[in-house]
Amino acid sequence: MKKFLTIILAFFAATTAYAQCPAKNEAFNSGETLLYDLYFNWKFVWLKAGSASLNISNTTYMGKDAYRTRLITRGSKRADRFFIMRDTIMSYTTREMVPMYYKKAANEGGSYRTDEEWYSYIDGICHVKQRHRNKRGTIKVKNESREDCIYDMLSIMLKARSMNISNMNKGYRYHFQMTDGGKTQDEVLIFRGRSTFQIENSPVKYRCLVFSYVEKDDDGKEKEVVTFYVTDDKNRLPVRLDLNLKFGTAKAFLTGATNIRNPQTAKISGN
């Protein structure tokens, strides 16, 4: 679930060039904090399963100005009877949202695993050192190099929030590469159009941009993993996520937002 929260909720060590990574941030401030309620579908019944918080702050990394993005997810005691979830994910990017470092510590279903990624850039090539510890405690280290930028699940979220949508038509496909679980894969983000979304148990509505995150299965067929709604204003706040997970379906709803950068012009008060 963190992977997709962070994709919505959707670009490194000292370098001489940054491949295709840099982007201009006009969506968020340092200090922005977003809060979510998480729900799982258990035998056709939606149960509140936990909560998540996402925070972005100014910091330094390797002597360079950076953003630190941190996502924490915690399952409820009730949800623990079905699936334990205790995850902390952290990413460092430059102020142009170029990935620098990433770490995920995940306790999911009673299994603990970690991922770490270190990014460097030489002559326009993106190099990533990946260290993956699986649930059995086995550690694998892998190095990859690509001409295009390689993202982690948090840096692609920052990138997605800053994308220029003025020339996007319904069905537009944005291709990118993302590393997770010790491997790098080609992924696709599809623009589905615009919609209005009402917060659960609230009169508040948002005008939203709707995207789908798609990945390929073992047979090479595309599979829609998550549909997410971001506000149709300069903040691009992820307000809703519909997720198709290995163990079922889930949803996440925005419940709180502080230190927002721009006026929330997509927010509609209603009855």
TL;DR?
By secondary structure, the chain is mostly beta strands. It has helices at 2-7, 77-80, 155-161; strands at 33-42, 45-61, 64-75, 85-94, 99-108, 111-122, 125-133, 139-146, 150-151, 173-180, 183-198, 204-216, 222-231, 238-245, 248-258, 267-269.
Report on this structure.
It is a single chain. The chain has three helices and 16 strands. The chain has a 16-stranded mixed β-sheet that branches. A hairpin with a 4-residue loop joins β4 (85-94) and β5 (99-108). The protein has one domain (2-269). Helix content is 6%, strand content 59%. With 271 residues, it is mainly beta. The chain has helices at residues 2-7, 77-80, 155-161; strands at 33-42, 45-61, 64-75, 85-94, 99-108, 111-122, 125-133, 139-146, 150-151, 173-180, 183-198, 204-216, 222-231, 238-245, 248-258, 267-269. The longest helix has 7 residues, at 155-161. The two termini are 31 Å apart.
